[in-house]
Specification:
The complex is a heterodimer of chains A (293) and B (77). By secondary structure, chain A is an alpha/beta fold. Helix content of chain A is 60%, strand content 14%. The mean pLDDT of chain A is 88. Chain B is mainly beta and 77 residues long. Chain B contains no helices and nine strands. In chain B, strand 3 and strand 4 form a beta hairpin. The two termini of chain B are 22 Å apart. The model of chain B has no long low-confidence stretch (mean pLDDT 91). Classes of the chains: A alpha/beta (293), B mainly beta (77). Strand 6 of chain A pairs parallel with strand 5 of chain B, so a sheet runs across the interface.
Chain lengths: 293, 77
């Protein structure tokens, strides 16, 4: 039987752990709300962009824009791996890393062996874990975006990717990240960022009365990178919201588990206490009997 | 009266009515009044000026795209 003092110590430490996990859950809940607001705020922007794009879809096959759409034969593949900066969020980061490792072992094996696979880690956790593998080519140090996630910082990173892609450094750019479904569900997604998959628009409500200033091509030249940057920012926002959702759930579970642990410790404690009392009484009774006898 | 929206990916900077809006177009600054023809234009670094009841409000932008249709002006920054 565990002694009283030991159990009391365990109870105290479990209580303080529970307080921490509870606080972390609350913090994550607040951050999740903030991240969700970010996604909601972005929707009108995305919608307006795609509205304009629909009206320009007839000039999208302009040859000068083909770099965005055509598959190139040579060049490296860039894999953007989006994880979080901090842990304690369940399988959130582990899932992404597992997916990347599967890709390296499978689809990208040839590229990887020829050192044609470059990794751009966003989020400290992915960077730390993947770096241990050694053989991966990193084109940068860990990128710190999640401390202050906004479109300006995200666009700066997206700009570098786009520039290098247009300089023919990369033949394709792919992204592995957690897509946000709801607070409890994240979907691991492996998406092609570049070249852009052309979706044939069946939209018939073309409004061709627009005056295009300075011209359709110039606008598309501005609009396509802008749409891509928005898409990139969306990846980050999704991952950010997923991270906090995952952490919230993980911390909720941890708090619950601590509660159960606490229950069993309290039972143990009371049993030990009662046993001690019973022993003391029997000792006293025994002692008294011995004196009388 | 124009219905104006100025949006960035992070937030909506302005949403409301205006009498006139001056924009830094790629080929020079231009003003949009009620009944303007539908236009899609690139914007360069400069200031967006909104006029409403004699009051002017300005926003500085680095680049952007504007869409004007049926007295609705959407500025994407």
């Amino acid at each position: 039987m565990a002694n009283l003092k030991e159990v009391r110590g365990r109870i105290a430490s479990t209580i303080s752990t529970q307080q921490i996990t509870k606080a972390m859950k609350l913090v994550s809940a607040t951050k999740l709300r903030k991240a969700q607001t970010g996604i909601v705020q972005m929707r009108p922007y995305e919608k307006a962009l795609s509205n304009i794009l629909v009206n320009l879809s007839d000039s999208i096959d302009d040859e000068r824009l083909s770099a965005f759409f055509n598959h190139k034969d040579s060049g490296k593949t860039l894999l953007v791996v989006i994880t979080s900066d901090r842990g304690l969020c369940g399988a959130f980061n582990a899932n992404v890393i597992k997916k990347v490792k599967t890709l390296i072992a499978g689809t990208y094996n040839e590229l990887y062996n020829n050192k044609q696979l470059e990794i751009l880690p966003i989020g400290k956790k992915g960077y730390d874990t993947l770096k241990k593998d050694g053989n991966l080519i990193f084109n940068t140090k860990h990128i710190n975006l999640f401390q202050d996630l906004n479109s300006i910082n995200a666009n700066a990173v997206a700009n570098i990717i786009l520039e290098n892609y247009l300089k023919n450094e990369y033949s394709s750019v792919e992204v592995v990240y957690n897509q946000f479904k709801n607070a409890a569900t994240q979907v691991l997604v492996h998406d092609r960022f570049l070249p852009v998959k052309v979706t044939v628009s069946t939209e018939t409500t073309l409004n061709n009365d627009y005056i295009f200033e300075p011209g359709k091509f110039e606008i598309l030249q501005e609009l396509i990178p802008r749409t891509l940057k928005t898409k990139f920012y969306r990846y980050l926002l999704d991952s950010f919201a997923s991270e906090h959702g995952a952490r919230m759930i993980a911390m909720d579970k941890a708090t619950e588990n601590a509660g159960e642990l606490l229950k069993s410790f309290r039972l143990q404690y009371n049993q030990a206490r009662q046993a001690a009392i019973t022993r003391e009484i029997s000792e006293i009774v025994g002692g008294a009997a011995a004196l009388e006898g | 009266m124009l219905e104006v929206k100025i949006i960035t990916p992070d937030t909506t900077l302005f949403e409301g009515n205006a009498d006139a809006i001056t924009l830094p177009g790629a080929k020079g600054s231009f003003q949009v009044l009620k009944g303007h023809a539908p236009v899609v234009s690139n914007l360069t670094k400069g200031e967006v000026k909104l006029e409403q009841n004699g009051k002017t409000e300005t926003f500085s932008i680095d680049s952007g795209i504007v869409e004007v249709l049926n007295n609705k002006v959407i500025v994407l920054v």
